[in-house]
Each structure stands twice: as structure tokens, then as C-alpha cells.
Amino acid sequence: MPPPNLQNYVQNPEPPAPSRRRLLVIGGKLLITALTLGLLYNSVYADGATAAAWRKLLSTTLSGSGRGPVLAALALVPVNWGLEAWKWWRLARHLEPVSFRRCFRAVLVGLTLGFVTPNRVGDYAGRIIELKSRRLDALGAVFLGRYCQLVATVVAGTGGLLYFLLTFYLKGYPSAGLGLVVATLLINAGVILPLYRSRLLLTALTVVRPLRRFRRFLAVMPTYPARALHWILALSMLRYAVFCLQFGLLLWAYGASPPVGPGLAAIAGTFLLKSLVPSLNALADVGVRELSATHLFGLLHEPALPVLSASLSLWVINIALPSAAGLLFVLRLKVFRKKDLAPKTPQP
Q1: What is the Cβ-side half-sphere exposure of residue 156, based on CA atoms within 13 angstroms?
Q2: Whole-number Å distance between alpha carbons of 44 and 35
Q3: What transmembrane ranges does the database entry give (predicted)?
């Protein structure tokens, strides 16, 4: 005769994992806050050139000299990141139902996390954490959005650098100039092709052994229809135009007045050179962009100080200030969902 089922009154102890997780999350948030505030302080106050540009930005705004262009550039900051949030909303809703508000919050959180991480990889984490499911596929969605922005940067930037090479370096060498034009077209085609033929990209990742591990993260890319890719690319180009307009307004505010066409070419070339150089964090981008800007605008006989001030101010209003605003969302971030923190019930 089998023994009767006895009620077990012994309480199973709660697993300590959730408490440790909460402590790790709180510690991570505090660490991100400290690093962000430290980098902001170092970039705005400790560095002399950045501090001077920021003081001049405030003084010109308050004194009335250049107030209009500066205020217009500041007004375009929410437009800039609103377009990025719109782009992420169109990408994320392909994975799960999501509101534009959550996407905007995810973009600001990603901006703050990316501020303190190499090559801004924290941008991936900030957006993925805000999703409730399919976080692995979200890696591919974030990559797709950033790749579209890179396409806009490369297409415009290669055109800008082509102008400077043909005008200042290859003048009198028509054969070399023609070869450079053909090379530019091939580069642009090579950048655009993986966007609309992402299966080719996945095949290439399969062939190259060290890159095979990334294939599963990008497997979601072919599921986006061409119409969605058109939208994402259009939003990326529109956001790129906002960046260029902000740079032009700040140049105007600081007294630089290059011709419109060559000035746009210099701006596009500056953004491309900055994008091609890996960085340790957002602060490291500053030196690359300023070096590129002063060189290209120097070829247009523009003094270095207004160009340097405009470039630094562009970084402050578009990266530093929104990163500080994103801290408010980072501190309230739910890294682990309730279902992740709930103790697992033992299977019978």
C-alpha cells in the first residue's frame, strides 16, 4: 500500500538571485550616472576648448549676437532625436506592439548608455531593454537603423570629400579624377546593396568563420519589406539634413560664412570622417570631428576658431545635453521584467 501524501509544511527559502540582481541593477545605474556626469564635466568644464566654446555659445545667445541661429539650432535638437525615435518606432513595431513614447524614451536611454561605452554599443542595450520580447531580434533592428544612418552619411560624405579632392588635390589630373568618381559610385553602391539584399550579407557572415556568430543577431533583417526600408532610409536622410542645418546655423552664429555648396561639402566630409574612426566613447568623437572640420573649412579660407566653436557646440547640444536628460530615464529603468525576477516553480 503506497504511503499517503503528506502535506509538507517546510517553506522553501526564497532564491537570493532577484536581490542580487536588483543590487547589480542599482549599482549599474549609479555607475552609469557617475560616468556620464564625469564625462559631461570633463567635456564642458575641464577641457579648455570645449568650455570656451560653451561659454561663447551662452554669451552670444544672451547678448543677442547670433541669438537667432543658436536658438534655431537648439530648437532642432528635439526634432533630431524625435526623428531618431520615429525611426526606431518603425523598426521596433515590426517586432512587437510599441508606442512612440516608449521608443523616444529608449532612444534617450540608449544615448546616455552609448555616451559611456566604446563605439556607443550602449545604444543597443538602451533600446533592447525597453522591449518586452524578441530582444535578440532587436539587436538586428538596432543595427539596421544605424546602418541606414551610415548609408546617408556615406552617400553625402563621399560626395563632399569628392568635391575637395577634385578641387584642391587632383586639379589638372582628369584621369585620376574620373577614376575617383567611379570609385565613389562603386563605394556607394557597395554600401546600399547590403541594405536591400541583406540575405547576401547573411551569406557573407556564414562564409567568414569569425563573423558567423553575428548571423543569428542579424537574421531579422530580411524580414523587413522594401517599403519599410524606404521609410527608415528616408528618415535617416532627413535626420542627416537636420544635423547639417544645425551645423550651418552654428557656423553662421559664430561668424563663419563659407559658400553654401562648398560649406555643405565640408560639413558632409566632416561627418563622414568622424564616422569612419572608432571611438572609446562619445567624448572621443570630439577631437576627430574638430580636426576634420578645421582642415576642410581651412581649405575654404575660414578661420579655425569659429569652425571649432560651432563643431564643439554641435556636440554639446546634440549629445551632451540629451545624454544628461537621458539620465532621468536610466535611473527609472527596469532592466529585468517581473517574469525574469519571479522565482521559478519546481516542475512536478
Answers
A1: 26
A2: 14
A3: 23-44, 141-166, 178-196, 228-252, 304-331
